[in-house]
Amino acid sequence: MNLLSVSNLNVNFHMKEQELAALIDVSFTLNRGERIAIVGESGAGKSVLGFSIVNLIGKPGYIASGSIKLENKDITQMNLRQLQEIRGKRIAMIFQDPMMTLNPVLTIGDQLVETIRSHTKISYKDARNIAIEKLHNVQIASPEKRFDQYPHELSGGMRQRVIIASVLLLNPDIIIADEPTTALDVTIQAEILQLLLAICRDNGVALVLISHDLGVVSKVAERTIVMYAGRVVEEGPTLEIINDPQHPYTQGLLNALPQMTLPGQRLNQIQGSMPSLAERPSGCAFHPRCPYATERCRQEQPSFIYSGVSSVACFLVEDMLNEFAEQDKEVNE
Ligand SMILES: Nc1ncnc2c1ncn2[C@@H]1O[C@H](COP(=O)(O)OP(=O)(O)OP(=O)(O)O)[C@@H](O)[C@H]1O
């Protein structure tokens, strides 16, 4: 059984008497210990998806239809008490800004001890020992000293390590990390990603890494889901997607990566921008930005097709596969 199965998830925002779709028919699965990435430009719907997984999508947003099953229990049908049981303990979230989660007026140690003691009846001294061990596990030097410090006394990278330590205290099955390194210096970003990878691998924790950067996720995630305007447009093994992207949007994201460009060359940004919810184009929402768009793309929504590399929603790929099938037929006749 999959650890998490998201099926035909639709999330809307109720805005000014209008229903605006933020997620449309999103489906994917996550196995125990697996690491997947959700990528796409700003506004693609990555964070809405991350929050929806723990049923934390606040007003004006709501889950309109679909299911999110944690093993066999549907998170969309859970009451508040059941949701509180899974948030943090089974599914933990890490955000871009650690200060969103850390309490600025409590020491690092007190926050960790409070988390431990809210779930386990142990003495302060024992909880302190566990907290210090966890700080050590996330490679914080002099953990005894850090234990007594306040969040503002730590660097951004160190604060993110503290968050990872605090998330681990409850032994979650899944960590959802929403742009966890975007606010950090490049060298620190790599360290934190490596730490997340090691922690998840060593503890059998599944990871959903949300990022706008395909380069970042390629180092961590086994599988990648590419989102555009609230829909999944391509999904498959990360390496295959990086080496042979099928959807023109995925190709555009890869071309825009700095390392794909020669020194002195300008980055090949995708022309145009992500549409707002109210202005989602008809047919394939990417068509106004797609160099290969046809009339059909403007009219119809492509369904998913397996390309041999990944699952992709694109008429271009569908036509190409049909053409190959025709050629095979001719050769065999
Ligand atoms: N609370 C909200 N009210 C109205 N619209 C919202 C709200 N939150 C998100 N949206 C809209 O939903 C769409 C998806 O937003 P989301 O934050 O999931 O994008 P994202 O891919 O995570 O982008 P970013 O990387 O910038 O966070 C966007 O068009 C956004 O404007």
TrEMBL record:
Organism per entry: Marinomonas profundimaris
Catalytic activity: a dipeptide(out) + ATP + H2O = a dipeptide(in) + ADP + phosphate + H(+)
UniProt GO molecular function: ATP binding; ATP hydrolysis activity
Entry keyword Lyase: no
Primary location group: membrane
SUPFAM superfamilies xrefs: P-loop containing nucleoside triphosphate hydrolases
Membrane topology per record: Peripheral membrane protein
GO process terms (BP): peptide transport; transmembrane transport
Similarity field: Belongs to the ABC transporter superfamily.
UniProt enzyme class: translocase
Protein name: ABC-type dipeptide transporter
Boundaries of every ABC transporter domain copy: 6-254
Gene Ontology cellular component list: plasma membrane
Pfam families: ABC_tran (PF00005), oligo_HPY (PF08352)
Enzyme Commission number, as recorded: 7.4.2.9
